[in-house]
Amino acid sequence: MSRYMFKNDYSEGAHPKVLELLQKTNLTQQEAYGLDEYSMQAAALIRDLINMPQADVHFFTGGTQTNLTLISAALRPHEAVLSAHSAHINVHETGAIEATGHKIFQLPGSDGKITTDDLQQAIDFHQDEHYVKPRLVFISNATELGTVYTSRELEQLYDFCQNHGLYLYLDGARLGNAIEATNDLNLKQVAQFTDAFYIGGTKNGALLGEALVITNPNLKRDFRYIMKQRGALIAKGRVVGIQFLALLQDGLYFELAKRANNLAQQIRQAIEQSGFSFLADSPTNQIFPILPDDLIQQLYTRFDFYIWQRYSRDSSVIRLVTSWATDETKVGELIKMIRNYSKQK
Amino acid sequence: MSRYMFKNDYSEGAHPKVLELLQKTNLTQQEAYGLDEYSMQAAALIRDLINMPQADVHFFTGGTQTNLTLISAALRPHEAVLSAHSAHINVHETGAIEATGHKIFQLPGSDGKITTDDLQQAIDFHQDEHYVKPRLVFISNATELGTVYTSRELEQLYDFCQNHGLYLYLDGARLGNAIEATNDLNLKQVAQFTDAFYIGGTKNGALLGEALVITNPNLKRDFRYIMKQRGALIAKGRVVGIQFLALLQDGLYFELAKRANNLAQQIRQAIEQSGFSFLADSPTNQIFPILPDDLIQQLYTRFDFYIWQRYSRDSSVIRLVTSWATDETKVGELIKMIRNYSKQK
Amino acid sequence: MSRYMFKNDYSEGAHPKVLELLQKTNLTQQEAYGLDEYSMQAAALIRDLINMPQADVHFFTGGTQTNLTLISAALRPHEAVLSAHSAHINVHETGAIEATGHKIFQLPGSDGKITTDDLQQAIDFHQDEHYVKPRLVFISNATELGTVYTSRELEQLYDFCQNHGLYLYLDGARLGNAIEATNDLNLKQVAQFTDAFYIGGTKNGALLGEALVITNPNLKRDFRYIMKQRGALIAKGRVVGIQFLALLQDGLYFELAKRANNLAQQIRQAIEQSGFSFLADSPTNQIFPILPDDLIQQLYTRFDFYIWQRYSRDSSVIRLVTSWATDETKVGELIKMIRNYSKQK
Amino acid sequence: MSRYMFKNDYSEGAHPKVLELLQKTNLTQQEAYGLDEYSMQAAALIRDLINMPQADVHFFTGGTQTNLTLISAALRPHEAVLSAHSAHINVHETGAIEATGHKIFQLPGSDGKITTDDLQQAIDFHQDEHYVKPRLVFISNATELGTVYTSRELEQLYDFCQNHGLYLYLDGARLGNAIEATNDLNLKQVAQFTDAFYIGGTKNGALLGEALVITNPNLKRDFRYIMKQRGALIAKGRVVGIQFLALLQDGLYFELAKRANNLAQQIRQAIEQSGFSFLADSPTNQIFPILPDDLIQQLYTRFDFYIWQRYSRDSSVIRLVTSWATDETKVGELIKMIRNYSKQK
Q1: Is D99 in contact with C73 (CB distance < 8 Å)?
Q2: ipTM above 0.90, yes or no
Q3: pTM above the 0.95 mark?
Q4: Contacts of A244 (CB under 8 A, 6+ apart)
C-alpha cells in the first residue's frame, strides 16, 4: 500500500469544477496567446475583486516563470532584488533570477519574513556604482515557512518601498492560504500595498497556472514582449484563463484555501497538545513541527512528507502540507498516530 | 455571427480523449516536477516509438520555452545557432534565444528549409575568435511555411553536422503533420537523424505541452537544472505527461495530424484547380495561397485567417491552417466560395 | 626581413605626445575609476569641442567594450539593435551584443551604410510582441568598408530615429578619419545628430582607449554602474583620460587622422591610375582594392595586409590600412610596386 | 595643500621601468589582439616562473573583466560560484558575475578567507535540480581584508575542490603582496593548487593589466572567443604584454610588492605599539586599524584614506594602503602623528 502524501499541495490534479469548465468550453474557437474571451473575463474578474480597473493581468503556467518574467521586465542590468535568504527565488529556483542577469541581495531573518529595518540596512550597504543598486523587494505571502504578512505589515513595507524608489513584488503561490489565515488581509489590500503580485493557481486547485497582477503603470509597458521572450506566452492562453474563471467565480479559490488551512491547523493543534513545537509559527497549510526521530519513522510508514532539516541529535523538522484535495480521513489517521505516540511516552 | 477560424491549429481546447484521461487520473496522488507515473509512462512510450531506450524525454508547456531551454543548455557563451532566416526562433520568439546570450546566424532560402551548402557557407564565414562559433543547427519540421524535410534530407543534414561538430536540433511543433505528409519519414528516423527534437502537442490536440527528446548524451547532463532555471519544470508535471499518454497511445497523435493535413490539402486542391498558386509547396496543414484581394475580402466575411504578406498590387498571400478540430462543413463552405469566385471570373 | 604592415591602424604603440604626457603625469596621486583630474579635463575638453556642456563623457579601454556597455545600458530585454549586416557588432565582436541579451536585426546594403528606407522596412517588419522591438540604430563612421556618412546623411538618420522612438548610436572607432575625409562633417554635428557616440583612440594614436559621449539624458542614468558591471571601469582611469588629453589638445587627433587618410588616398590614386577598381568608394584610411592575384602575391612578399575576399577566379579584394604611424617611404614602395606591375602588363 | 593618499594602491601611474619599456618598444610593428611578440614573451616568462609549459596565459585590462570572463567561460548556466561573503565579486563588482547569468553562493567567515568546512556545508545545502550547482570556488590572495592563504591552505582547498568536481580560481589582484607576506607561498604553488589564477598588475606597478593563467585544460578551450565577446581582447594587446614583461623580468614585480608590504607593516607596528587593534590580521599592504574617531579626524587633515566601517560609538575602522609608489617620508609622518596622539593620551 502506498503512503498517503502530505508532501505538498500539488500532488493531485485540479479541482473538479476546473476540469468541468475546461470540458464545457473545449470546442469554442478562441484567439490565441491570452487574447481569448475566457482570459479576458478572468482578468476582468480579478480587476473587480481588487477594485482596480486599470490593473493589468497576465496568466502564466508556473511560479518560477512568473517571477523571472516580472523581475527581468522591471529591472535595468545593474539593479538588484532584495529578498529573505530563505526566499524561493534565492534558494529553490536554480538561479532563475541570476540567469536573467540580476543579483539577489539576501536579508536575514528566521521566519521567512523581512522588515523595513532589513531593507534600510540593505540600502545603507549599497553605497555607489561599485555595488548593485537595490530596486525590487521580493516577498511571498504566505512565506516559505508558512508564515503570513498582515495588511499592516504589507503597508509598512510598501510605504518604505515607495519612499526609497523600490518596487514591492509579492509572490502569491499560496496567497489564498495567507488571506484565509488572518482576519487582517484581503485581496484588495494585497493589490493596494504592492506594485505587482501573483495569485497562485497551481497550489490551490488549478491544473497549472498563476495570475500576475500589475498595478504600477511603470511595470506594464511592453510586458507581453517580455512574456513571449521568456517562453511564457502560451498559444492556448485560454487554458489558464478558464481555470482562473472557475476558481474565482463564486469564491471557490478562497474556500479551497480555507479548507487546506483548517486541515493543517487541526494537525498543528494535535501536535501542540502532544507537547511538540514548531520551526515557525505557521497559521497556513504548511506546518513545520519538530518531532522525535522515532515518531517520524512511525509516521513515515504510513505517510509521505519532507524531512526539512535535522534539529537535534534525536529530532528533526518535518514539513506537512495540506490542500484542497487532502483526505480528511487521512488527517485523522495522522493525528491519531501522533497522539498515540505521545500517550505512550 | 462570428467568422469560422482557419487562423491556426490552436483555436480550440484539447482532443476529447486528452481531457478524458486528465479527468480519469485527476485524484491520484503523484510525485511533482515530472517524476509522476504518467510522465514516466509517456516517456517510456516515446522511447519505445523511437526504439531508443537511452533517450531522455522532458515535458514542457510551450515551444518557445522548449527551444530556449534546449539551446541554452547546449551552448557555451560564444557558440551560435544556425537557422533559416524565416525560422520561428529568428523571427517570432521576441529574441528568446538572444536573451539567453546566443546569436542566431541566419541562412538564406525561400521555402523555410536549409541545405548543407548553406551550412558550409556559414562555417566558412566564421573564421576565428572574432566571430561567434557555429555549434547548433536549428530546423523545424514541418517548417514555418508548411514545407517538409524528408528522411533523406534529414540524414544529409545530420551527417554534415556530425562531420562538423554541430548539433542538429529539430523543432517539431508540427512534427505529426510533417510525418504524415510524406511516405518517407517516420518518428524513428527523426530520432536517428537529430541530436534532439520535440514532439509538439499544443498544435496537435493537447491543451498545451511539448515532449523534448534528447538522444545525444552530451546534451543530457543536468538538463533538469536548466529546465528549472528557465521556469520550465512545472509542479504538476503530470499535466503534460498525461496528455502525451493520451495522444501517443493507439496512434491518436498521428491520426489527428493526418486529418489536419487532409483537410488542408482538400483546400489546396480546390485552390489549385481554381487557378491560383502558392507561396511555398506545402503538403501539411498550413497552406499559403496567393489570392486576389477581392476574393480575400469575400472569404474574410465568413472566415478568419492571417493575411501573410502583400504579393502584388491586387493579390496577397494568406495563411490557412487546419487542425484536429477543424469542422469539415466549414472546409466545404470555404472551398465552395473559392470555386464560385473562380467560376464567375 | 619582416614585411611592412598595412594590416591595420593599431600595429604600433602610441603617438609620442601621448607617451610623453603619461610620463609627465606619472607620479601625481589621483582619484581612481575615472574621477581623476586628467579624465575630468579630457571630458571638459570634449564637451567644449562639441559645445554641449551637459554631455556625459566616459572612457573605455576598447571598442567592443564600449559598444556592449552602451547598448546594454540603453535597452530593455526585448529591445533590439538595427545595424548594417556588415556592422562590427554583427560580425566581428563574437556575439558581444547578443551575450548581453539583445538581438541585432541586420539591414541590407553593400557599402556598409544604412538608409532611412532600410529603417522603415525594419520597423514595418516588426509587428507585435512576437517580434523583438527595434530601439537602437547602430552605425559606424567611418564604416567597416571605409565609407563615410556626411552630416546631411547623419541628420536624416537622426530625424528618422527621433520620429520613431529609436536611439542613434555611432561607433567612432575611426571618427577622426571620417571627419577629415569630408568637408561636410565636424565633431559638433556628430554630437548633434546622435544620442551617443564614441571617439576612437585605439586606432588613432592612443595606446588604447575610447571616449564615449552621451548627449541624450535618457542614456545617462546610472551609467557608471553598467560600466563597472561590464568590467569597463578601470582602477587607473587616468590612463585613458591622459591619452585623450594629449590627443585632443591642439587638434593632434585630427592631424593624425588626416595624415592616415592622405597616405591611403595616395595609394588609392595610384591603384586607380593603374586601372584597378575598389570594393567600396572609401575616402578614409582603409581602402579595399580589387587586384589580380599575381600582383597580390608580389605585394605580399614585401608587405603584410588582409586578403578580404575572393572577387573573381584570378582576382581578390585586399584591405590596405594606413595610420598616424605609417612610414611614407613604405607607402612609396608599395605604390611603385603597383605601378610597375601595371606597366609590365 | 592636498592630503597625501593612503587610499589605495592605484593612485599613481606606472613604475618607471614599465613606462620605459613601453617607450622603447613603441614604434615596432606588431600583430594585434595579444598575438604580438611582447605578449608572447611575457606569457613564456610566466610559464617559466610557474614551471608549467602547458599553461595558457591571457592578458586583460582589469580585474572585474578578468573575473567575469574566466567565470563565464567556466560555467554552464545552472552552475554557481562559491565565495566568501566579502569577496570582491560578491560585493564590489556591481553584479558582474550575475550579469553573466550565474549565482554567487556566499560563505560565512570574518577574515575574508574560506575553509573546506564552508565548502562542505555549501555542497550539502545544494541538494538537487531546484538549487544551483556549485562548480567554481572563488578566492582572492591577498583577500579583501589583507589576509593571506598559505600554500598549505591553498593545497587543502584545492584537494577538496578536486575531490568534489569544483574548479578553484584565485583572484590575484594583490598576489605579489600575498606571496611576499609569507615564507610559505610562491608562484609555483599558486599555479599548482588552482585551476586558474591571475597575477594582478594594476595594483602593483602597471598602468593597467592583469595576467590570467589557466592551468586546467578544461578551462582553456575557445577562451579567446569568450575574451572577445566580453570586450577583453584589446587591439593593442602589446600594451599589457609589455608591462608584464617589464614587471616580471628581474623580479621587479615581487620587489614592488615587498616594498609595499614593508611600508604597511611599519605603520601596523606603530599602531600596535600605540595600543590599537585591527579588524583583521593583515601581513600585506592593506591594513584595517580600529582607531578613535578623534585620531581619525587628525589623520584626515593630512592624509586621505577610506573609513571602512563604524566600530564603536567613538571608534572606526579605517583602511590604509601602501604601494610601490608610496612616499616613505609620508609613512614617517603618518606614524609620527599616531604615536603623538598615543603619547598625549
Answers
A1: no
A2: yes
A3: yes
A4: A42, A45, A46, A59, A199, A201, A206, A209, A211
DSSP B220: T
Interface test with D, best of A93, A98, A125 (most D CBs within 10 A): A98
pLDDT digits (tens, 9 = 90+) for A260-308: 999 999 999 999 999 999 999 999 999 999 999 999 999 999 999 999 9
User: Residue with C-alpha cell 512545472?
Assistant: B234
pLDDT tens figures, C290-332: 999 999 999 999 999 999 999 999 999 999 999 999 999 999 9
pLDDT in tens, C149-178: 999 999 999 999 999 999 999 999 999 999
Q: Could you tell me the CA-to-CA distances from D8 to A333, B16, C230, D19 in Å, in that order?
A: 68, 72, 22, 21
Do D69 and C202 count as a contact with CB atoms less than 8 A apart? Answer: no
Which residue of chain B has the CA closest to C77? Answer: B99
Q: Decide if D165 contacts D136 (C-beta within 8 A).
A: no
* pLDDT tens readout for residues C79-110: 999 999 999 999 999 999 999 999 999 999 77
User: Residue A17: pLDDT above 80?
Assistant: yes
Residue B136 CA: distances (Å) to CA of B64, B72, B194, C282: 16, 11, 11, 37
Interhelix angle A238-248/A16-25, rounded to 10 degrees, is 130
Considering only CB atoms, which chain D residues are within 8 Å of A102? 95, 98
CB contact under 8 A, D101 and A103: no
Give the integer Cα–Cα distance in Å for C22 and C208.
Answer: 12
List the domains of chain A with CATH numbers.
16-252 (3.40.640.10), 254-344 (3.90.1150.10)
Return the SS3 of B27: coil
Residue that is written with C-alpha cell 506545402 in the block: B282
Beta-sheet strands, E only, within D6-146: 56-60, 79-84, 104-107, 133-140
Contact D247, D253 (CB under 8 A): yes
- Which segments in chain D show pLDDT lower than 70? 1
Comparing CA positions, the residue from B206, B199, B213, B212 lying closest to residue B242 is B206
pLDDT at D109: 78
Task: Give the mutation candidate from C69, C97, C102, C129 for the A interface (greatest A CB count, under 10 A).
Answer: C129
Spell out which residues of chain B touch residue D56, defining contact as CB-CB under 8 Å: none
